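Table S5 (text form). Sequence records supplied for joint modeling of the two-component complex.
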Amino acid sequence: MIEIKGLKKKFGRLKVLNGIDLSIKEGLTTAILGPNGSGKTTLIKSILGMVRPSEGVILLNELPVIGTWKYREQIGYLPQIARFPENLSVKELISFVENLRSQSGDYLKLVEMFGLKESLNKKLRFLSGGTRQKVNLLLTFMFNCPLYILDEPTSGLDPVALLNLKDHLAQLKHEGKTILITTHIINIVEEVSDELIFLLEGNIFYKGSYQGLMKGQKEENLEKAIAKILKGNHVENSEI
Amino acid sequence: MWKILKYSFYDLIRSRWLILYFLFYVGAGFIILYLGSDTSKAIASLLNLSLLITPLIGTLFGVINYYNSREFIELLLAQPIQRKHIFLGNFLGFAISLSLAFVLGLGIPFISYGIFVTGDLWDFISLLTGGILLTFIFSAIAFLIAIYNENRLKGFGIAILFWLFMAFVYDGLLLISLVVFESYPVEKMAIALSVLNPIDLSRILVMLKLDISALMGYTGAVFRNFFGTSTGIIISYFSLILWTLIPATWIIYKANKKDF
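The corresponding structure-token record, covering 500 residues in total, follows.
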């Protein structure tokens, strides 16, 4: 589905991605992990065309995407921070985004799932952070896309919404969608992802299953394995 | 682009600060019109007011608006639309709603006063056009400042300094340079310097139209002597439109290259 070759990105003198080679398979849920500043968001934003890479190629279904925009029809993107035009109501925001994509969204089920029925006619500035995140999720999932890219989808969600989100992700996977998630919440990784990419200082430190990562780090728990890597006393060269 | 313009406009016209801005002009218009008795004097007073307030609000709200929609712009950037349409749509939606507040804010008092029968209609229209152009120019520059500066405080600081410079400092510098170069023919320099300041340009524009020599100031008088009234008006319009187009094009150029 996505092929990335030699992707580099520098912001001024700061190197954020140091030549990433990566292939993301269709129909799988891939989690991107890594400490703050490891390049997770830059990687995702490069795929979306929000960051202009310094070097490298990104292919989506074998077509180069850098500098083009039409391919984004195939992507549902969930931004990390849920902030919207303050004086629009949720309903108006939905029709705005539908209008932009020239696509109608299937949102009734999502309204039900996230309990947004009463918020639909409220202006966005009156909504709490958690509710705004639910609106954010709704805007992403209401379109039927082959690829979803989710940047920290769990932030600010209550336990019920979190559970519903996981169910929904499982459902999407069942439908054969490709999903790319960045997160700090380990249990999401364990529950929904098929593959894990661990970024460290702009390089891929590990790519494979989470069980493989645990094994490589000689830990029985994913959280501990990750902590070990982050503290710098990891076992080197655990890439599969 | 039109879709983004439409929703940005729709969002802004319902915001509280825009309504306050509108009410400010309604209030100022009524007070100045009904306290005096002469429409052309009222137009001159409102001109002086709007030459300060319109650029200030355009710059300040422009920067605030960009920073507030920063995260939503990221969502838009991930949609199947071109970047330039996002930024142009946002900018135009902003500048149009601000201009509308200005035009309606002054329009209501003037219509109720009977501008259509006083014969000063064209003077009033040139006051409005000057204000609209200033709104577009300063909003575009504010967007540009905000796009260049991710750091919000720095962006604010630069925006305020820019406004202060254009509204106050520039005139002082102009005056000083005229005094310093007193013994030389300074007319051309004065013209060049006023073309470089949109606030001065719109003052000249309206003053030429009103033909109030006393309020024209040095540059206004030079403009009239040098070009004559109608050429002077055309040249100020032309320069003001350039002042709008250059930063607007610059926004597209910068936004296309920027990483979000």
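Note: The longest helix of chain A spans residues 159-174.
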